[in-house]
Structure formats: C-alpha cells, structure tokens
Amino acid sequence: MKNKKTYIILLIVLGIITSSVAAYVSDVYKNRESFKENLIRLHVIANSDAPFDQTLKLKVRDKIINEMSSKFKTKSINEAKGIITENINFIEKVALEEVKSNGFNYSVKVALQEHNFPTKNYGSITLPAGEYEALRVVIGNGEGKNWWCVLFPPLCFIDVKHGLTDEKTQTELKEVLSEEEYQMINSAAAQKGELPIKLKFKVVEILEKSKWKLSKIMGY
Question: What is the pTM of this model?
Fold first, then answer.
C-alpha cells in the first residue's frame, strides 16, 4: 500500500514537471517559428557541381549583392519584400548578364518563395532547419551546390570572418527580432545556461517515458 502511494505521488510530481517543461518548450517552439517570419534568405543554386559552375555561382552572387546593396536599406520586412518583388526582373537581368559575360548560355530563374532549408550556422547565429522565405536564383539546371545568406536583415552585405558574427550583424538582427527570438538563434545564449532546442525536447521525451513506465509498474 505504501509503495502504491509512493508511485502515485511520483506520477503526480512527474506530471507537473512534464507539463511545466512542455509549456516552456512550446514557447520555445513558437519563438523559433516566429523569427522565421522576419527573415528573408538569398539562395543561389549553381547549374552543376563542376568547378566552373561553382565559380560562376559565386560571381552571380557577388553581382546581385553589389547591385542590390544600395536598394536594400530598410528595417521593415514588408518593405523588404516589396523591394524584392519590384526588382525581381532587374535581379534576373543582372544575374543573366553575369552568366553571359562569363561565356555561358545558361538560363536564370529568380523567385521569392518559401523553401525548406537545413540547419545552418552564420557565425554565432544558428538558423534551425525549416521553411524560410527566400529569394531563389537558379542558374541553368540548378543541380549544383547552393550558396545562401540572410538577405533581410541585410547580413549578406556584412563581412563575417573566422566564424564570428560581428557586432553590426547582431545589431541588424536585434532591430527586427524580439529579444526572445534573438536568443533562440544566438549560440552565445547557450553559454549563459540556456538549453539547446534538441535537449529541451529530449527532456520532455524522457519525462514522458518515465511516467509511462511508472504507470506500467502500478498496473494501469
């Protein structure tokens, strides 16, 4: 009887802990999803993995960034989308001219659309896997390795060296993200005691399994 009461108490405690952690992780997930709505990525896909196609991809990237840097001065995500939409044909023209000036006859397709990305590190900033709005520039068959950066806020125009994100990059992000959203993608938060996203979900998983095992022991 005493053991049964102990199990019941443990189940109640585990239930409370699980609910609390689950609520916390739910907030984390919401923040993780919400910051994506404030970012636009630039995605340049090469014709193939051949060295000359990969070199061309980087030249097209540089040309687009150089041509768009003067136009892309805004702190509003909606204005940024408007600028991109208004300049889609211009961007395609610039990319196509760069392709032809390098002696290639590839087509170029440019579109602003949702696209699934894997987890990526950008200095101290980590963008989790998922769907992001992106300006996609597909060169030729688009079967080669891709290159990406954050177009809004305009991190593409900021030099990131030796894997470290400079202060200007952090400032740009803080101007368009909430504090919670910024902490979600800044790996420096982990050094201040924040649990990584994967570990947070793992905690919930372990607690749920422990509660299930106790229930089995009690015969429920």
Answer: 0.64
